[in-house]
Design brief:
The complex is a heterodimer of chains A (about 240) and B (about 475). With about 240 residues, chain A is an alpha+beta fold. Chain A has helices at about 20-30, 40, 110-115, 155-170, 180-185, 200-205, and strands spanning about 10-15, 50-55, 65-70, 90, 95-100, 120, 150, 190-195, 210-215, 225-230. In chain A, the strands form four sheets. Chain A has a four-stranded mixed sheet. In chain A, strand 2 and strand 3 (about 65-70) form a beta hairpin. Chain A starts with 7 loop residues before the first strand and ends in an 8-residue tail after the last strand. Chain B is mainly alpha-helical. Chain B has one domain: Formate dehydrogenase/DMSO reductase fold, CATH 1.20.1630.10. Chain B has 18 helices and two strands. In chain B, strands 1-2 form a two-stranded antiparallel sheet. Chain B is globular, with a radius of gyration of 24 Å. The chains are: A alpha+beta (about 240), B mainly alpha (about 475). The interface of A and B includes residues 82, 85, 86 and 106 of A.
Chain lengths: ~240, ~475
């Protein structure tokens, strides 16, 4: 059976986001993302597939913290892909996803250079999963070794599992059936995930919202992550 | 007084009886290698004697360089065991010193074969004794440069993923990636350069075979490939060298343009520029010409080759260097003025950071070495004919061009599109050790080359002397040349 074309899309409602970082923790747990020591973080070796960018806005005393959850933008025309010499960064046309094949990667780090969002992470050392931390690793996700690049996959293992379940039950995939770890965890439901090719999905309704924008849209990368932001709301 | 000076070869014009003309003739012979012919046997010995005699200085340098090369490979092994985290690389600055060294060594590798090929095509006589020294700079610089992509990548033991060969993974390298264009261009240039240098060396290897004994003779016998010097062999060699000379010039332009595309193709403000191609080519020739001058000064002194490498050769190379310095200035100015005039906020920030930010000391040192120093000194004929002065200027140019390759990276990568991801770079010890080791690697290979191969193309010098003569026009003697 031919699987239908998907356009997986994530909508981040910044007016709902409280900056609680639950998505960051969920992502670490789901995707076996290593947690580094403070010394490593100070050297710029930190790895968070999902992270909150925080900016200060305004002059004292009217200072506001503004933050924006950032993850791989899953661009339709991704600058990171063509520069890879070994096809480790490849595009899935059917799912509209940017895939990273870890065991092809030799670590030229060109993808990270060419990535305007800087959401790709390099394993500078072997991941430090000391016992008993190795017992909580997700068996669905590869643990990456030193010298390879990694990034947010939109929890491709969850997408695959949901699609297979629907295939076995011989029915189309329902909207909301696929939830990446960050989406599942978000307390105020600021993250919404779905298939843009499905006209009845929740995301299809949200991407036409007048509050929508995409990060660095002027570069022509056509990201699949949409942000929603009202004019002067300083909540997010 | 040597035999040649008492009884000069027949192809040397006898001294005229007129004392004024005789002194002109003497002056010309002092100045020009082609007008100072000696017997071939004597020239051969001038070349072969220092190769067989390695003094205390040689062994001292050899031991130091070998030690530093061992250090290079030990550090690299350590880095492979622990991971790239031991370097100063971090999230926004994912490329750094290794790439800077790579571009620098490709750069100095540029000039050698180009100088030799272009001067041959344009029939410049001053190329004759220096062409091989230049070609070998190319070969060894390219070999040193090709270490760096391997040191740079995260999983060096998987380097064969980058090589196009039928494999069990059923995966070809991606020709969308500028890195693969790069590897292809460099491999082409390296193989052309080795062949060009080797074909040009055959007659000299045969000469060495005929004048040595013992293991040296056996060695030269093997590498001379049975060259006997028949008319047909000379004609074939001439054809091959001409084909290579013309073919290698466009290859040279392609190589450094493609190296610049590693940067220029990236979606990074400060890199994404159309001027990078020609600007990198000129920078490469500039640093390469400087390196060739430094090598010439060293081998002339160390191997007592004053007969072959004369002031006229330094003067010719220095003139070339001055022109390249001015051309480099022109391109650098272009690279600056266009973004500055446009007042694009991102580009403007980069310009400010470059000229007055953290790396500004290096920036101004680069401007001094590449622009101010050559322009201030190379106009003077005394400087242009002094090997010591040129050696110092050449060293400054190496520093300047290395810095140019260095500061192009952290400023651009550190200050990218989203300010949250801005970062900086600090040099860590392993990178410094590997860089020092790479320079030693280049030096060591060159040192060994001078022991095993004749570094001056004696046959080319002899050919030049046979074709050169003087004609008397009125009261003056004018050097003139026969051409086929």
């Amino acid at each position: 059976m031919e699987l239908p074309n998907r356009k997986w899309t994530l909508v981040v409602d910044l007016d709902k986001c409280t900056g609680c970082s639950a998505c960051v923790i969920a992502c670490h747990a789901e995707n076996n993302v290593p947690i580094h020591t403070d010394r490593e973080v100070a050297q710029g070796h930190a790895m968070h597939w999902m992270h909150l960018q925080r900016y200060w806005d305004g002059e004292y005393p009217n200072v506001y913290a503004r933050f924006i959850p950032t993850m791989c933008q899953q661009c339709s025309r991704a600058p990171c892909e063509p520069v890879c010499p070994v096809y480790a960064a490849v595009h899935s046309e059917r799912e509209s996803l940017n895939l990273q094949v870890y065991n092809r990667c030799v670590g030229t780090r060109y993808c990270q250079n060419n990535d305007p969002y800087k959401v790709r992470f390099f394993n500078f050392f072997d991941p430090p999963f000391e016992p008993p931390l190795d017992q909580q690793l997700n068996p669905d996700v590869t643990v990456r070794s030193a010298g390879v690049m990694e990034k947010c996959t939109f929890c491709v293992q969850r997408i695959r599992r949901a699609e297979e379940r629907a295939l076995v039950e011989n029915r189309p995939l329902r909207d909301g059936e696929v939830t990446p770890a960050c989406v599942q965890t978000c307390p105020p439901s600021a993250l919404i995930f779905g298939d843009l090719n499905d006209p009845n999905s929740q995301v299809a309704g949200l991407v036409t919202n007048p509050r929508r924008f995409r990060l660095l849209e002027e570069l022509g990368t056509e990201p699949s992550v949409y942000y929603l932001k009202g004019g002067k709301s300083y909540v997010g | 007084m040597s035999d040649s000076e008492k009884y000069p070869p027949v192809w040397r014009r006898p001294a005229p009886e007129d004392p004024a003309l005789a002194s002109q003739m003497e002056h010309a012979a002092r100045e020009h290698l082609t007008l100072d012919p000696r017997y071939p046997q004597e020239m051969d010995q001038t070349m072969l004697r220092p190769m067989a005699r390695s003094g205390r200085m040689f062994w001292l340098v050899f031991v130091i360089l070998s030690g530093l090369v061992i250090m290079l490979f030990t550090t690299w092994l350590y880095q492979m065991i622990w991971g790239l985290g031991i370097t100063g690389l971090n999230r926004p600055v994912m490329w750094m010193l290794y790439i800077a060294n790579f571009v620098y060594f490709i750069g100095i590798g540029h000039a050698g074969t180009f100088i030799s090929a272009a001067l041959r095509v344009l029939k410049f006589e001053f190329r004759r004794p220096i062409s091989r020294a230049a070609e070998t700079v190319t070969v060894f610089a390219l070999l040193t440069a090709s270490l760096f992509p391997l040191i740079h990548i995260g999983r060096a033991w998987k380097f064969y993923y980058l090589i196009p060969f039928p494999n069990q993974r059923q995966l070809w390298p991606s020709y969308h990636s500028p890195l693969i264009w790069d590897a292809t261009a460099i491999f082409t240039y390296l193989s052309c350069s080795i062949l060009f240098a080797y074909i040009g060396m055959l007659p000299d290897l045969a000469m060495a075979r005929d004048h040595t004994t013992g293991w040296r003779q056996r060695f030269f016998k093997a590498v001379a490939l049975g060259w006997r010097g028949t008319t047909k062999e000379w004609a074939n060699q001439e054809t091959a060298l001409n084909v290579f000379s013309y073919a290698i010039i466009p290859v040279m332009f392609s190589v450094h343009t493609i190296v610049s595309w590693d940067f220029a193709m990236a979606l990074q403000p400060g890199w994404h520029s159309t001027i990078f191609g020609p600007y990198f080519v000129v920078g490469a020739l500039f640093s390469g010409a400087g390196a060739v001058i430094m090598v010439l000064a060293v081998i002339r002194k160390a191997m007592h080759l004053e007969y072959f490498i004369r002031k006229e050769h330094f003067a010719g190379m220095a003139m070339f260097l001055l022109i390249l310095s001015l051309t480099w200035d022109y391109f650098y100015f272009n690279d600056f003025i266009v973004p500055w005039y446009g007042q694009d906020p991102v580009e403007k920030t980069l310009t400010v950071l470059l000229t007055s930010g953290r790396w500004s000391v290096l920036f101004w040192l680069m401007i001094f070495s590449n622009t101010i120093l050559p322009a201030a000194t190379l106009w003077s004929k005394r400087v242009r004919t002094s090997p010591l002065a040129l050696f110092i200027i050449g060293a400054f140019i190496q520093v300047g061009m290395w810095l140019e390759r260095f500061i192009i990276i952290p400023v651009t990568l550190g200050q990218n599109w989203l300010p949250f991801d801005w970062g900086t770079y600090t040099l860590h010890l392993p990178e410094a050790l590997i860089t020092i080791g790479a320079f030693s690697f280049f030096g060591l290979m060159y040192l060994l080359f001078t022991r095993f191969f004749p570094v001056i193309p004696v046959w080319e010098v002899l050919e030049g002397q046979l074709l050169q003569t003087v004609r008397r026009i009125g009261r003056a003697l004018v050097p003139s040349r026969t051409e086929e």
